[in-house]
Amino acid sequence: MISYEPPPSAISNPTDPGGTTIIQGDGENDEEEDRDIVDAGFNPSVPGAPGQTDTQIARRLVKGKKTRRILSNKPQDFQIRIRVIEGRQLPGNNIKPVVKVSVGGQTHRTRIKRGNNPYFDEIFFYNVNMTPLELLDESVIFRLFNSGSIRADSLIGEFKLDVGYIYDEPGHAVMRKWVLLNDPDDSSSGAKGYLKVSMFVVGTGDEPPVEKRDREMEDDDVESNLLLPAGVALRWVTFFLKIYRAEDIPQMDDAFAQTVKEIFGADSDKKNLVDPFVEVSFAGKKVCTNRIEKNANPEWNQAVNLQIKFPSMCENIKLTVYDWDRLTKNDAVGTTCLSLSKIAASGGEIEEYDSTGTGSSSLEATTEKEVGFLPTFGPCYLNLYGSPREYTGFPDPYDDLNFGKGEGVAYRGRVLVELTTKLDNSSIKKIEDISSDDILVVEKYQRRRKYCLCAVFHSATMIQDIGEAIQFEVSIGNYGNKFDSTCKPLASTTQYSRPIFDGNYYYYLPWSFTKPVVTLTSYWEDISHRLDIVNILIAMTDRLQSNISTLKSAIQAKLPDVRLAEIWMRLIDQLIEDTMRPMPSLEGKANVTVLDKQRDKLRQTSLKYIQEAAIKMRGEATDVKATLTEIEDWLDRLQQLSEEPQNSMPDVIIWMIRAEKRLAYARVPAHQVLFSKTSEEACGKYCGKTQTVFLQYPLDKTKGLKIPTELRVNIWLGLSEVEKKFNSYSEGTFSVYAEMYENQALLLGKWGTTGLLKRHKFSDVTGSIKLKRESFLPPKGWEWEDDWKVDPERSLLTEADAGHTEFTDEIFENEARYPGGEWKKADETFTDANGEKSASPSDLSCPFGWIWDDDGWMRDINRAVDENGWEYGLTIPPDSKPKSWVAAEKMYHTNRRRRLVRKRKKDPKVSTTSKAALTPQEQEGWEYAALIGWKFHITPRSSDTFRRRRWRRKMAPSDQHGAAAIFKLEGALGTDMTEDEEKKGSEKQTATNVFGANTPIVSCTFDKFYTYHLRCYIYQARGLTPLDKDSFSDPYAHVSFLHRSKTTETIRSTLNPTWDQTLIFNTIDIYGDPHAVAQNPPNVVIEIFDYDQVGKDEFLGRSVCMPMVKLNPEVDIAPKLLWYPVMNSNKHCGDLLLAAELIIREKDGSNLPILPSQRAPQIYMVPQGIRPVVQLTAIEILTWGLRNMKSYQLASVTSPSLIVECGGEIVETAVIKNLKKTPNFYSSVLFMKVLLPKDEMYVPPIIIKIVDHRPFGRKPVVGQCTIECLEEFRCDPYLTKHEDAPELRVARLTSSPLRDVVIEVEDTKPLLANQLQEKEEEVVDWWSKYYASTGETEKCGQYIQKGYTTLKVYKCELENVSEFRGLTDFCDTFKLYRGKAEDSDDPSVVGEFKGSFRIYPLPDDPNIPYPPRQFLELPGTESQECIVRIYIVRGIDLQPKDNNGLCDPYIKITLNKKVIEDRDHYIPNTLNPLFGRMYELSCFLPQEKDLKISVYDYDTLTRDEKVGETTIDLENRFLSRFGSHCGLPQTYCISGINQWRDQLTPTQILQNFARLKSSPPPVFSDNGTRLTFSSKDYTLEEFENNRKIHQHLGPPNERLALYVLRTQGLVPEHVETRTLYSTFQPNISQGKLEMWVDVFPKSLGPPGPPFNITPRKAKKYVLRVIVWNTKDVILDEKSITGEEMSDIYVKGWIPGNEENKQKTDVHYRSLDGEGNFNWRFVFPFEYLPAEQLCIVSKKEHFWSLDKTEFKLPPKLILQIWDNDKFSLDDYLGFVELDLHRTTIPAKVPEKCSFNLLDQDKHSKVASLFEQKSMKGWWPCHAEKDGKRILAGKIEMTLEVLNEKDAEERPAGKGRDEPNMNPKLDPPNRPDTSFLWFTNPCKTMKFIIWRRFKWVFIGLIILLLVLLFLGVFFYSLPGYVSMKIVKPNL
User: Per the annotation, does 1325 bind a ligand?
Assistant: First the structure.
């Protein structure tokens, strides 16, 4: 397995249109991101997956995205919970397994266990704060180690998983699944065992699902419960990524060396100052190509081989091009990614959609083989985007963009790559060279075609960055980049223009009827076969999206079903028509890759399924709303299909350039503006159409706080072979000019060329480049049309007012001084806003066609200025003017200025079309300036010293006519090559020499324009952000439309302003075809600000609306007000209700609608027909009281009153005199009549303000609340049922105490004694009731059989149970806020308002009486003393606080100033404590209403840490009519564990209930067995028909009354589950508490006895194991005589009680594997029969202070060992038995085999606790060479006894006394069983003699023979000699 390293980039901009450059989706695109299935351990050898095909391998590459929310880009709190439950089939002998779990750099480990099937059951918490996308890229790693091994190979196996996989699962959780472990380094090894785990991802506000832990019901079949089923077992694959070449890499190195070469006359090559190499990273592996030095177009021709398990846990193959640096770190050039989910398909993602949600599985099965494919890509170029290309020696502020963090702002080259996938894992090199044949094959994919691009700029508006002149540059790739000298010059930039004021707020560029045009040609591969399909699918998606929006709006507007059905039918019909339309074929197309064919097949199949599903839905669907989910799924699918990973054409990038610096940019995907000859549908969405583009700043830290500019631009892109098609798209007349400027200076009173200093006689617009008329040569294909002419530039001042009816001129008056001196006129007394010299006010005359609206120039004091209008600044050299201005004068200030303004308006007597005749002076065309470089003006002044005029020469195409001729303008205008050296030198200085001066000027002139009239109807806003300290804002809105803007009035102190204002833009000239404007009109942009008296107004948010265009005034369609979101920094900050209509205006304005009525001068209201239709409505307000009010300005709130505002009406309550004593209002009901819209969509919110009445008349607002949705408070006053009436809802306070309910204290003791006695007899307790209620019947004993009733266990808070309506049926609780909203936080909560509302319509006819009031006869507002009982049952999954991953929890109760800290009863070392505690205390309501239950972690030495807390509103429980103060049990018992505990009996509660419902009291009959209530008859028999009657039940009438009460929807006896929260992670669960609360008012007497919920204690048991014999044990040793033998003994223990290990004596010298023991093991243990778990309490370490309690399943482990005296004993084998699922043993050893223990073959098992004892043979096994072998058989008797039985039938360990039950005799071992070391005689007898008997006999005979022979030969010579001497003897 490949280790994983999270990618450094986890965030990118969702608007990145580069296709393949997207690192990771964000925002809306995140739902389009597919997430691969992550594994790190599946092996091809897993059973159940033979012969896998490619599509089976890829089947789960792509996860479903439907479960993934739209993820934000903001860091959030998350919690990952991992529970390690148990292991199974772990390899190894006598191992000690431990699991380490790593998530996001945090690692936790389990406790060390023993055996091959360990049970862990430990949970780990990982708290992280990161963006969702970063989190989903993190991985979860399980590593299983053998802790007993100190070798390096102690890792047994591992499994890796992506957090994103868990997040995509239902509930963001993987519940109790087995994961397969494998060896990460050995791809050929098999499974290394299994782990059962649960995994949860808990986000903000998420509730983790409840994990069921029923061991009996759990599926233990590993294969069927694998996390990834065996059918999709993963295989090793190899990714071959071929990297051929790159091009257009920008300069990355300093040009110092090149500059030195240049000085000495050598050739320089600055374009190749880069040393590129490519780094490929995937799944933690990084591989780099070779480095190629000094080459901007390198050719690597290398292949990278990546071996991985597939499908992989990693989504992106990341390619980063680096520039190698010798001394410093390598610089990133750019980063791009191959997203596996986009270049592969599983096949399983194709489903047949239908309205019932049941797809056709047969169809799905047949198509998976057709459409599934492994990752493949290219050969194709991948584009790189990042920071601007211009090289500087300074650190790049946008360097992060080059790593893929954020949207790249500039093209930085591209890389040609190809990816193929092979299903093998043969070991090969990581990187190798590509063969020459492959290089030749890829050549055909690089064929270039010429593309032409033309962009016409219609307007540039909403500019706020003013100052220097502005131009725009359009580039595609490197083509058109004015600062890049590697490409030939193109007319890719507009002329410089200065922004001018629009008279209201913004600035714009005054292009008027002459629109700048840029044109460029470029060369790219022809990928039209891909982009045509993309455009067709996008058009289809847009239509479906639009239809879905229309349908949703119709549903929201509650249109009739017939109308809804029409809209729905139109949507379905359009979709069917779209999907039936054939797609362009790939046949005969060039550059078609494998991926093209596969994606084409995928698209065709998907469209077919969507079409079939739509046809089926059309015929079968009945509910329109129910089909929306499925239709939106189709939309998601279409959006995925429209993505094109092989989009090699770079984006069109528009740059805004100011003072030769890049300021802001926009990226337009090329396919959106691309012309296609296939069909009109295949053309780009905006091809040849005017679109609105909002520019943005690179890496904008303010996140869109300010828009640099809003552009209206028309872009056309197409192949040069179809460039004539451009003629049909073009509007206006294109003009092409060469341009130069004639410069003169004033010297000695004469104008001439002397005195020009560095300026030339003829130059470009900047004056820095010398030009000559003769040096201009027209481009190829063009010729001069006429001679050079003077073309005077009209002053910008006269163009600033184009289209305006009124205008404000501004001039700044300047004064200067030395610090501390007197103010005197500055050298430049009058300037413009930029500090450039301007004429004095007396010299400025009113332009032609205008008249002054003011008497004279006025000082503007409505700014940050002093009372005379001055603002002050300090000039710091070398600057010549201050950079900032302030309103207060200081001694050190050197400059001051004030703004003079004068309004003028159109002269109605002058026609708009007539123009003033040019004076002779103007015809000369001179522009004047005081100094070179200053702003020019037309009228000469005495201070002027410099003048210039523009000469232009028009060009015409020589061989081509029409607008398309502009595409021939390639290259710069030719220049005279015989220029002097100065000219040559200047040409080398900057790239600007090539651009601007020498490129032709293209413009588009519109002879005809259309005058429009815009009306913007701004009605109201809601939910705006508070930006003032008084918790409100003072909002106003700037509304911008093209070059006009207007501002609404300011509404003070509100977050929900109602402007009700119509902004009228009387005449707006728009150039272009009206039908094109109607199709894509300019946007209306509304920017909302908070007005501040001091300081700059703060930005609240922005909204964009598209106006409704009316070209035919006869069609009277009124625009509809709609809510538009207000956005600020990608955050939703409210909504704006507005509409806009754009009407084409006739000259006299006769076709315009009449003006709306005025509310004030020049403030028009929204007219009837557009404004909402209103109705007189009554709002009744129940103002019950205020709670938990926090101090304001260091003083507590003591005398508050409440103000309610709605629809312009205001009512106020009386003042509460003393909030601490009486927090309720004296008079609780307010009434107001309001005109509210009938349509709920337009209803304004209700605003609640709390005002504190303080000394000296101060009345600060100390809290406010906005209630936006009023629909839930609407009611029909005539149909209100009596039981729902608010005044009848409070039962407890109005019922009088009755004496017979008082429980006498003296009766309680014998009752308790009887109860305890019964408990002993019945062996049931409250926990029996609890477990019976949760369904854990095995834990409740005889409880259910006895006929006892259960309670209700809610898995949530009681307030969240839907039928109890949040317990707010009497009154709701509204949080009060105060203060300014900071960037990250919401306004702080400062209190609560308890109250409610009733809203109903009033009759329009005043003669009709008003409906009856809703809030009447309310209960008293005085305090009530109550007894509160808090029952804490248990904690669930608490957040660990100790280093060991556990917690020592205890309970802390806080009620106002009363605190109960139960520190003494902490529960050590657990995350799931069983508290079983009850607390009782008294309180006064409503003053002490908030009951806070906290869980703390006990620490001995340090401060206790809070785990979490939950707060209960006791007042709501007390006042609710649902009886939540004390839940109703199912039966009425007067004794036993279910004894009645309420103060009132059921009959009394029923009587009160009847009185509250205004119905007759209940009537009993038949001795209380029959009851009549609410006109219904009830009998006791019908309720107790199937119930078992027991002795604890009360009298019949009480039982029957209780049964009737339980039918009335009251709260039953219950246990609720409350989530704990902490301030550390405010919205993430820190665990849960199961608990409930009872509240009893003391006025009704003492309550019944409390429940005893003390936890159960474990019972003592004894396991007796008698080891009789062993057989067929492995013979592990050889004796000295060579015999195979073993000295056998048996060792055993219960897991958790390892310190009580026991072993038999040794059966020495077993020669046949047989051992005889007759040995008894006695294992005492504590056991909970109800939970079937053993309780083990022990200290984890010797330094631990507390014992840790573990709950483990009861198991027995027995091991067979070989005894060695002089070395370590040898391990032979083991058997592990689960005492609950004990394998039934074999009766005879011959039938004892592996099959007994084979879980997969479902061997027979039984519970030893039920059978009590078992006897027979069990097999033992061991592991050898990775396989299990039979290590022997063991005969045993197993017996489980409880403590009582063990005392009655005693038995000793081994054969010790008392040796009974049964008596064990010494084993009848053979005589050969002994220890040779201690028995030498037996050794001689049984080892030596038995083995070597014949050897000994032979040796003796041989010895005798040898002795005989020795004697013979010894005596033979003497005998012979004697015979010779004495022969006769």
Answer: no
1472 near 1438, Cβ under 8 Å? yes
Query: Which three-class secondary structure state does DSSP give residue 362?
Result: helix
Residue pointed to by tokens 């191992």: 95
Q: Residue ranges per domain, the chain? A: 34-233, 235-446, 448-527+646-731, 545-641, 732-792+950-1005, 796-917, 1009-1171, 1176-1283+1369-1401, 1659-1875, 1879-1929
Write down the CATH superfamily of domain 1009-1171: C2 domain (2.60.40.150)
323 annotated among ligand-binding-site residues: yes
Tokens of 719: 């192949």
DSSP state, residue 1272: G
Give Cα separations from 649 to 33, 655, 1558, 1737 (angstroms).
22, 18, 78, 69
Assess whether pLDDT exceeds 50 at residue 1744: yes
Please name which of 526, 497, 885 lies closest in space to residue 677, comparing C-alpha atoms. 526
Decide yes or no: CATH 3.40.50.300 for domain 448-527+646-731.
Answer: no
Fold observed for domain 235-446 = Immunoglobulin-like (2.60.40)
CATH code for the structural domain at 1659-1875: 2.60.40.150
pLDDT in tens, 1334-1350: 888 878 878 888 888 99
The reply, when asked if residue 1497 is annotated as ligand binding, is: yes
For residues 1077, 1080, 1081, 1086, the Cα torsion angle rounded to the nearest 10 degrees is -170
Q: Is 137 marked as a binding-site residue?
A: no
- Report CA-CA distances (Å) from 523 to 452, 666, 1823: 9, 22, 67
Residue 1770 annotated as binding site = yes
**CATH code for the structural domain at 1176-1283+1369-1401:** 2.60.40.150
- For residues 1204 and 1249, give the distance between their C-alpha atoms in angstroms, rounded to a whole number: 7
Instruction: Check whether 1385 is labelled as a binding-site residue.
Output: no
Under a CB-based contact definition with an 8 Å cutoff, are residues 634 and 353 in contact? yes
Q: Is the pLDDT of residue 1050 over 90?
A: yes
Q: Give per-residue pLDDT as tens, 1917-1926.
A: 888 888 888 7
- Write out pLDDT tens, residues 44-87: 333 333 333 444 334 334 443 433 445 666 788 888 989 999 99
> Taking the model in full, what pTM does it have?
0.73
Exposed/middle/buried for 721, CB within 10 Å: 0-12, 13-18, 19+? exposed
Annotated binding residue 1090? yes
Residue range 208-212: average pLDDT? 73
pLDDT at 986 over 50: no
Tens-place pLDDT, residues 1698-1711: 888 999 999 988 88
Confirm or deny that 578 is annotated as ligand binding: no
The two structure tokens encoding residue 1830: 């039979």
Confirm or deny that 787 is annotated as ligand binding. no
Contacts 24+ apart (CB under 8 A), 813-822: 813/897, 813/898, 813/900, 814/895, 814/896, 814/897, 815/895, 815/896, 815/897, 816/894, 816/895, 816/896, 817/894, 818/894, 819/891, 819/892, 819/893, 819/894, 820/891
| pLDDT mean across residues, the chain | 81
Q: What does DSSP say about strands 1131-1144 and 1108-1110: parallel, antiparallel, or unpaired?
A: parallel
pLDDT tens-digit series, residues 514-547? 899 999 999 999 999 999 999 999 999 999 999 9
- Terminal alpha carbon distance of the chain: 102
How many alpha carbons fall within 13 Å on the CB side of residue 1536?
Answer: 21
Yes or no: say if 552 and 627 are a contact pair by the CB < 8 Å rule: no
Q: Has 267 been labeled as part of a binding site?
A: yes
The CATH number, out of the four listed (2.30.110.10, 3.10.310.10, 3.40.190.10, 2.60.40.150), of the domain defined by the range 34-233? 2.60.40.150
1798 annotated ligand binder: no
Same fold, 448-527+646-731 and 1009-1171: yes
What is the DSSP pairing of strand 299-310 with strand 1122-1128? unpaired
**Residue of higher predicted confidence among 1291 and 556:** 556
Backbone φ, ψ for residue 514 (5° rounding): -105, 105
Q: What is the DSSP letter of 1195?
A: B
